[in-house]
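Ticket #4471: structure export looks truncated?
Reporter: QA, pipeline team
Priority: medium

Steps to reproduce: submit the single chain below to the structure queue and open the exported record.
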Amino acid sequence: MNLQALKIFYTVMTTGSYSAAAQKHNCSQPTVTFQIHQLEEYLGIQLFEKIGRHNYPTDQARTLLPKVIGLLDNLAQIDKFKEVRRDLKGEIYIGICDGVFSYRLPHLFKRFNFLAPNVNIITHCDTAASLISQINKGELDLALTFNRGNYPASASTYPLKVMKLSLIVNSQTKIGKNAFMFPNQRIDHPFIVSNLNSGPAKFFLKFLKEFCIETKGMIQLNNVESVKHFILSDFGFTYTLEHNFDSEIKSGALKVLPTALGQASIGLILMKNRNKVESPSVSLLSQLIIEELSNPKEEFKDFYTKTLLKYQLPLRKNRS
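Actual output as written to the record:
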């Protein structure tokens, strides 16, 4: 099936004539007939019945027509959308928490670049606390960050997705399966992290302290990909967003260990400064971010409370 066949079908249905469709689409009548037959073969239905010298639409064709009209209308809107956005120029400054970069951002930026090729995107990777501060000062147009609460009055936030946090190790690790389930443990491996000041890292360190779990030091590597290489080399363990390691976990190279934290999660949000004038290009990128990164099936009731890490830290029982 192709778009031209749908357009020809629509014209035949609205004009009642193959010859009128050929004239409108600047093609021969046999081409119209061929396109209609191709569409019938694709759908597995008969669209027109020839009686005498005329072709009459079947009931199935009448049922299909509203759907084709809707599709063509949507495509027309998309074409208009693209034309307008191609005229946009300038730069967008967007702050992104480390760990979000690999999460569908290549596809997102590719879409934006296609729609607005003359707009430059300048990214800045930082912690959630720092990004919130930069949004508040008007230094960034947008921020993709994690929910941490206590937002300034200038901040406008949009919940996107609940993201799972997990403890990840090499599949061949000698760390015991239940090493992080009970207090007073000694882990003979270092904690590998991209940023010790990040929310997940601070959250996990509080957990280790609360449960009196000792590790063989800590190593900060400044980016998730470096952390991944260390874990793949069977050196240390990490506590981070599980989605960044999905392919390695599925391949069996890495695995998730249970912890007394249970199913901890963090909320991904889109943040802006409500007092800052929003350009059309920023509006476009915001729309694409919501389309690409939000989960339409997500239940956002109590999102900002449920995804705050400070409410997910378990207290050690029977402390001596």
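Status: closed, not a bug. The export was complete when the record was re-opened. Leaving a note from the reviewer for reference: The radius of gyration is 28 Å.
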